[in-house]
Design a protein that fits this description.
The complex is a heterotrimer of chains A (about 300), B (about 375) and C (about 375). Chain B is mainly alpha-helical and about 375 residues long. Helices cover about 70% and strands about 0% of the residues of chain B. The chains are: A mainly alpha (about 300), B mainly alpha (about 375), C alpha/beta (about 375).
């Protein structure tokens, strides 16, 4: 296939394509974490949930021959881990940050342990929608090959934003997150709501993980995740707990991850380690600029331990 | 009058302090041990479900970790770096911060040690080692203090911040080791210029374990004294207990937070120096071995108590040591020990809820 | 139905427990293994055995060795390049009685394997890729390696025929001599077909970074590259990404043709069975340890993968011809005059480097036509 090299124009297109490709796991994990944090709990273990989701999705897709069943099971596995986190944190005096770290370890360990037999086999992957076929350029075609999960994520972000604002469930969640006392006074079971939200958040994170193994890069092995789960947690704070802002932030982070290879492909070869660290530096910079020691962050759920 | 006279003599007073201390000590020992026992049981169930014999697994863990002199040395060698990296989590935790950036501090400390060790080539070994240790501790302290500073001055959550700094530290490390600081002779394994053979830290006499173990134990003892028996340590614990009360009392909260982070970072940096000086002789990618992350586990299981860190590190080191033999004899993947550690971690954390509430430990008459 | 399964699994579990208890009573697992008559060989991997790449190639050789009569192989994977591997080697020697140890990752050589070799002078250590030097390294250590750059050259020839854009891509982990030699051989092979071919290199920074590798592949393809090869621990992701985007790919380490039925050209595979067998047979027969074992196509240390559907007739002919020359030992890849990509002369005119020339194992330049920096 003849294709013109794009030279430096290739960098923004690669960043765009990378943003769409790489952002989907960020999107799902951050939406899940957004739900959890809105209810007043922080789940740092989503890194482990992501890896577990990736492994279980790939394994089930291989065993059943259907990638979508894999996605579903990945979500269920994530939900189980989220439920564990929620239940343990419901015990009094247990620190949710510490349990999150423990969940990270457990989730990753379980995934590596159970995933050993699935490193080699090739499982069916998720199909893509070719939204770029209007373009003659194969690069744009490739950049706009969007996965259904990406679109599902956008729809989910919109739905979540609306739900928080306009539905009774959203109000309950927000109330539990802003003031546990007020929620209890109204008769809502605080611990149960938080546990449900954590479990639902785990479901979404598991689905996000399955994207990694079933679409991009589309393979299961132990180096699959490099801190995406944790960056997604930071992303939620950056997005001020607003689901739509989570979507834009996820795109930003996905694009940042694609800068390193894109620059190397046009010949900027020095310091590629530093370029590869771009997403982490970006996250840290954002956190520095948007946090403040004196005021609690605008929009923070009142009960969230990380911002008190 | 008769009713009052009929009351027992010590009505209205609480139990004497001595038995309070015993109760707290019993709690502090039995609850974590109980949690560990529960986690071993859960792990056994996990193994059973997968079709392997849990009894065999327990026996092999014992054998691989604690049964022979060889096993003990294996365990101690693996425990040595964990003691120091656990301090990196435990000391800031006393100030109320959850810092998990030990891995970053370790690699930067190792880099600083390797560079300073090479620059001082030809000098007396003891001086070189001292310089390396100081350089490593400074580098590690600065890095974790950065996380603490971001928390104190900018309100950035220190858990996420320290983890991001770890990734950035590893990127910087790789950049320098493979770029400007690379030893041209280290072709297929990019490393910094090597330190003198004579400056390498050796093994303890008669054992196959290097001096890093002793550095760790000494550091732990020093931290214990610092936290429990000095005014600064007391102030630190006040900050950790209730920041607002500490501020109201006029304690220098910022200095205490930064100081605790610096001490923790120094410990992790020293672990990096030991890896360079006792094992590799230069800084290279093998330094990034996950000791920082394992240290988090040790610190939490030890409930951030410097004295408890040493036995817990030995326990975790033992579990890691047995992973070898589990792989070879039972064909279990290396992630087996990860699962065990994860279960143990969760059990310990869940058991936090029992402190002060378990009936067994309630004071008499309560 | 599920009740039945539940019962069945419970029964199996109970049976296993009973069997395990009986077995441990009979021959306790914790006692040192007495593989009395067997010759025990230990193999240590840095990654998982089934990574479709480096460790898998070693594991395939180990699996074949297992079938040799009187040989017992014990393996351990995911061993880090720290004191961990020293302890693993010691454990294999002391607890399982290993007499020959294969530490397969490059980073195990110095200081870990050397230290253990000094401690256990009766045990043989055969390292993959290390530069064993007479006088500097102990006599009971050895190194073996294969000249896989010969197969990368053949990769390059096939790529040269297949490419239409004359832009090739190479995804590598780190710029170390073994990798640079492969990049250069690939480029030289392609340039022998079309002299104005260029190879774009992207370094990902580490041996196993699937997301970065996929991104690198996509970036290269966006820049017009239409044949990619790689030197990373597990080529699976790159091969699958190339197949998805419809370009050609040349494999590495092991045979990945099953992953890319349309785009796979050929691949450069290890055949570690040859050095493994040599070392095991020598050890069992008590012959002295061959300290420096090297070989290419001729000695059977490496082999090219079978040609894929996309390889044209002309490409096959040329590649087969060159392969025949290599088999006879008549072909030199690195011969003067060669300039690197900064214009400097790295192989002067008239110099012909045989594959065994040690200076090639210290390569630190990229040949002209490669876009990238060391």
């Amino acid at each position: 296939m003849e294709s013109e090299a794009l030279g430096w124009y290739g960098v923004p297109i690669a960043v765009l394509g990378g943003a769409i490709r790489v952002s989907t796991p960020f999107l799902f994990v951050s939406l899940g974490e957004c739900l959890t944090e809105r209810s007043g709990r922080i789940n740092l273990g989503l890194e482990g949930v992501l890896v577990m989701g990736a492994m279980s999705g790939y394994a089930v897709s291989f065993l059943t021959g259907n990638a979508w069943v894999g996605v579903l099971v990945a979500g269920l596995a994530g939900m189980a881990l989220g439920l564990l986190h929620g239940l343990v944190c419901s015990l009094p005096r247990v620190s949710d940050i510490a349990v999150g770290i423990g969940l990270m370890l457990l989730g990753t360990g379980l995934a590596f342990f159970l995933g050993k037999p699935y490193v080699q086999p090739k499982a069916p992957t998720l199909p893509a929608l070719h939204l770029g076929d209007w373009s003659a350029s194969p690069q744009i075609q490739a950049a706009l090959q969007i996965n259904v999960l990406f679109l599902a994520g956008i729809a989910l972000a919109i739905a979540m934003a609306w739900a928080f604002r306009a539905t009774r469930w959203g109000l309950i969640v927000r109330m539990v997150g802003d003031s546990a006392d007020a929620a209890r006074a109204m008769g809502y079971p605080v611990a149960a709501v938080r546990t449900l939200c954590t479990a639902a958040g785990g479901f979404l994170a598991g689905v996000g993980g399955s994207f990694l193994s079933l679409y991009y890069p589309g393979s299961w092995n132990e180096g699959l995740s490099s801190g995406q789960g944790l960056m997604a947690v930071a992303l939620v704070i950056f997005a001020r707990w607003r689901p739509l802002a989570c979507f834009w932030a996820a795109l930003l982070f996905g694009g940042a991850g694609a800068i390193g290879p894109a620059l190397q492909s046009v010949g900027v070869t020095g310091g590629y380690y530093l370029f590869n660290a771009a997403p982490y530096v970006l996250t840290l910079a954002i956190m520095i600029f948007t946090s403040s020691p004196n005021r609690t962050l605008a929009g923070a759920p009142g009960e969230l331990s990380v911002t008190r | 009058m008769e009713a009052v006279a009929a009351l027992p003599a010590n009505a209205g007073t609480r139990a004497p302090l001595a038995s309070d201390a015993v109760r707290r000590a019993a709690e502090g020992l039995l609850i974590p041990l109980g949690a560990l026992a529960v986690s071993m049981l859960l792990f056994g169930v996990f193994v059973l479900v997968l079709g392997k014999d849990p009894i065999a697994v327990y026996q092999l863990i014992w054998k691989g970790a604690f049964s022979t002199s060889f096993a003990w040395q294996n365990t101690l060698q693996r425990a040595a770096p964990l003691i120091l990296t656990a301090l990196c989590v435990a000391i800031p935790a006393r100030a109320g911060l959850i810092v998990i950036g030990a891995e970053g501090a370790l690699v930067l400390g190792g880099l600083a040690a390797a560079v300073s060790g090479h620059l001082l080539s030809g000098h007396a070994p003891l001086a070189v080692q001292l310089a390396m240790a100081l350089a490593a501790m400074t580098a590690g302290a600065a890095w974790i203090a950065l996380a603490g500073g971001l928390r104190h001055f900018r309100g950035v959550n220190e858990t996420i911040g320290s983890l991001l700094l770890t990734y950035i530290a590893i990127a910087l490390f790789n950049h320098f080791v493979e770029g400007p600081l690379r030893d041209p002779a280290s072709l297929n394994k990019p490393s910094t210029m090597p330190i003198d053979e004579a400056s390498m830290v050796g093994n303890l006499p008669g054992l196959d374990v290097h001096w890093g173990l002793v550095f760790g134990v000494v550091f732990c003892l020093a931290c214990h004294v610092l936290v429990r028996h000095t005014v600064a340590g007391f102030a630190l614990r006040v900050v950790g207990g209730n920041v607002r009360a500490a501020r109201l009392a006029g304690l220098p909260v910022g200095a205490l937070i930064l100081g605790s982070c610096a001490v923790g970072g120094a410990a992790a940096g020293l672990a990096g120096m030991v890896e360079v000086a006792a094992v590799h002789g230069s800084a290279n990618a093998s330094l990034i071995a996950g000791y920082g992350y394992a240290g988090i586990l040790v610190a939490f299981i030890a409930r951030h108590n410097p004295l408890a860190i040493v036995p817990v590190a030995i326990l975790v080191g033992g579990i890691n040591a047995s992973g070898s033999i589990l792989q070879r004899r039972l064909d279990l993947p290396d992630a087996t020990v990860l699962v065990l550690q994860g279960i143990a971690f969760m059990a310990i954390l869940a058991a936090e809820t029992l402190y002060g509430r378990a009936r067994l430990f309630q004071p008499r008459g309560a | 139905m599920s009740h039945d399964l539940h019962n069945r699994s419970r029964r199996t579990a109970l049976k296993t427990l009973a069997a395990g208890a009986a077995a441990t009573a009979a021959s306790p697992l914790w006692l040192p293994r007495a593989f009395a008559a067997d010759f025990v060989v230990g193999v240590i991997y840095v990654g998982p055995k089934d990574d479709y790449g480096y460790s898998q190639a070693q594991a395939q050789a180990a699996a074949a060795i297992k079938k040799m009569p009187g040989v017992k192989v014990i393996e351990q994977e995911k061993v880090a390049e720290t004191t961990d591997v020293q302890k693993v080697m010691a454990s294999m020697i002391e607890e399982d009685g290993a007499k020959l140890v294969f530490p397969t990752s490059f980073g195990y050589f110095d200081p870990h394997m050397l230290k253990m070799a000094e401690k256990y002078p009766q045990v043989r250590f055969a390292h993959c890729g290390g530069l064993w030097t007479e006088g500097k390294h102990p006599k009971n250590t050895a190194s073996y390696f294969g000249y896989i750059d010969e197969c990368q050259y053949l990769n390059g020839v096939c790529a040269g025929h297949a490419t239409k854009s004359k832009k090739l891509g190479f995804i590598a982990a780190k710029p170390i001599p073994q990798v640079l030699r492969n990049i250069n051989a690939f480029t030289l092979g392609a340039k022998s077909v079309k002299p104005d071919i260029t190879t774009q290199v992207i370094f990902t920074g580490d041996w196993l970074l699937p997301v970065k590798e996929a991104e690198a592949a996509n970036s290269l393809i966006d820049q017009g590259v239409d044949v990619i090869t790689m030197h990373v621990d597990s080529p699976k992701v790159v091969v699958e990404t190339c197949e998805r985007r419809g370009i050609h790919v040349c494999g590495y380490h092991a045979d990945q043709s099953a992953l890319a039925p349309k785009g796979y050209l050929t691949g450069a595979e290890w055949n570690w069975l040859t050095p493994y067998t040599t070392h095991v047979k020598d050890a069992m027969a008590g012959k002295p340890l061959n300290n420096f074992l090297r070989g290419g196509l001729k000695e059977g240390f490496v082999k090219p993968s079978p040609y894929g559907k996309a390889v044209s007739e002309g490409a096959r002919k040329q590649a087969d011809a060159i392969k025949a020359q290599m088999m006879k030992g008549d072909f030199a890849i690195f011969k003067g005059e060669l300039k690197d990509n900064t214009g400097k002369v790295v192989v002067p005119a008239g110099t012909v480097h045989k594959q065994t020339d040690v200076v090639l194992e210290q390569m630190n330049w990229l040949v002209a036509g490669v876009i990238g920096k060391v």
